[in-house]
Each structure stands twice: as structure tokens, then as C-alpha cells.
Amino acid sequence: MRNCIGIDVAKQSFDLHCLKTGQDRRMDNSTDGIRQCVAFCNETRPELIAMEATGGYELALAGTLQAEGFAVAVVNPRRIRDFARAAGQIAKTDKLDARIIAQFAATLEPMPTEQINENTQKLKALVARRNQLVGLHTAESNRLEHADVRDIRRSIAAVLKVIETQLETIDRQIEEHIQNTPQLQQRSETIDSAPGIGPTTAHMLVTELPELGRLNRRQIAALVGVAPFNRDSGTFRGKRMTGGGRKDIRSRLFMPTLVAVRHNPVLKAYYTRLVGQGKCKMVALAATMRKLICILNTMIKNNQKWNPNLIKIA
Known about the structure:
Blueprint: E1 4-9, E2 13-18, E3 24-28, H1 31-44, E4 48-52, H2 59-67, E5 72-75, H3 77-86, H4 94-108, H5 118-146, H6 150-179, H7 182-192, H8 199-208, H9 217-224, E6 232-233, E7 236-237, H10 247-252, H11 254-263, H12 265-276, H13 281-302
Parallel strand pairs: 1-4, 4-5
Antiparallel strand pairs: 1-2, 2-3, 6-7
Helix pairs in contact: 5-6, 5-8, 7-8, 9-13, 11-12, 11-13, 12-13
């Protein structure tokens, strides 16, 4: 079994378990606590450190450990819980969670997360804030449709104006941040060159899908959740289904894919052929999304802007 460390991160503290020594530790989720964790890891020299994604509480710890040269995997919490159930671990405490995360890391060997630095954290925060503002704008717009009282409509219109102003500010800050980071700018421009993809989607992908260009086409499709999986048992042959992966990315690729099947000649032909073969439109659209993400993956891997011939190899 590999020498792995599992860390269960909370707002105020984090629990750590080392498979090699069997030691459990609790440390404050603070500068001092992170420093103690680094010292512990330097003593035990783990091959892999795993922790759950906890909405940002793990970023400082993960980034510091990566800067010290450790391989760190930030994992979807659902994968950890599914693994715990499969292992018969029903009880749940912080100490037990750290232990099961370490066992998960040693058994399934998740891919280490790309380097988390200050630039990455800032861009992720900006994109997350933009998503929040878009959600607020949608909610207020829906309320405006059903508001019959003039004063209420004025109130909603005023709130919408403020949100739109904030969206313009956030978009400008995201654009400036990417322009000031050459690597991100190059990746964003490469993605943006594909017909159907705009700057907003390009910014989202370089921020939330840093694995783009580093995985093969099957891996990147599975990571986004657009790879079809068999559902067969005995003589039963179920429908192939997609799902799992990064749902937020998949949902935000829906509209760009719709645009692509209308305005991208290559993907339009691909989508039309699938529909002509009897595939229902949603199935054809999901397949087109998979093709799109595989093409973008190839573009980033080859550092090559949009080329219709990529459809043959992606």
C-alpha cells in the first residue's frame, strides 16, 4: 500500500491521518497549523496527500503543501463517501474521515491537482463571483416577469441595474487578470478560437478545467461527465448514460454547444449526422458536447488554435 496522507478539512481545523505510521493529528486551519502540517509531511514523506474539496477552506493548505513539493489531490467529496460506503465505513467523524481519505488515496491513486497559487485562487474567486451574480440576475429577472405592482417593478429594475454593473466590473477584472498571466492568456485565446466558444466560456474552462490538454480524450470526457457508460447486466442491455464528473462545467457548456451546432460547420455536421441516424436531439447534443471538449483538449495539448481537421483526431 502506498504511503499516503488523508486530510479532512474544516473551517477552523483539519484532521490528518498517515497510513505509513497510523498517526492521527488535529491542527488549526491557520498559518501555524499549516506550518505544523508541512513539518509533519516532511518527516513522513508521503507519496500522495488527499483532501476533499470544501468550498475553499482547503486552498491555503493544498497550495502550501504543493509549494513544498508534495503531490496533493483535491477530491470530490462524493467520491470519498462512495468509497467509504463500499468499504463498509458508515460511521462518520473527522478522524475517521481523514483515515478513509488516506485509504482512498492509496487504493484509487487520484490524479494530483494542478498547482494552486495566488493567481489561480484569485481567478477562481472572480469566476465564482460572476456565477453568483448571474444566478442573482436570473432570479430577479424571473421576479420581474411576475411583478404587477409598479413600485415592485422599479425596485427589481434597480437591483438588476446594480447586478449588471457588478457583472461588467467582474468581467473586466477577469479579463485583466488573464491578460496579465501569459499562460492563462494563451490557453484562453486558444479555446476562444473555436467557433461557438466565447470569452466567458474560455475563462471558465481555463479556471475550472486546468486538466484540459493534460489528459487523453477518454479521461477528459469522463472528467467533465460526458463520456457514455454501459449499463449492462447478464442479458440485459441498458441505455448508455452520461453523468458524474464536474456538473457545473457540463451545465455551462450546454449553451456554447447549442451555439456550436448552429454556427460551427464541423460540429453542426456532426450533430446533424447523429440526428439523421435516429439519435434523439438531447443525445446528439451530449455527444456533440463530448466532441467539442475533446477537440478543445487536443487544441490545448498541441498549442494550436481552431482547425477543422482536429475533428478527425479528437
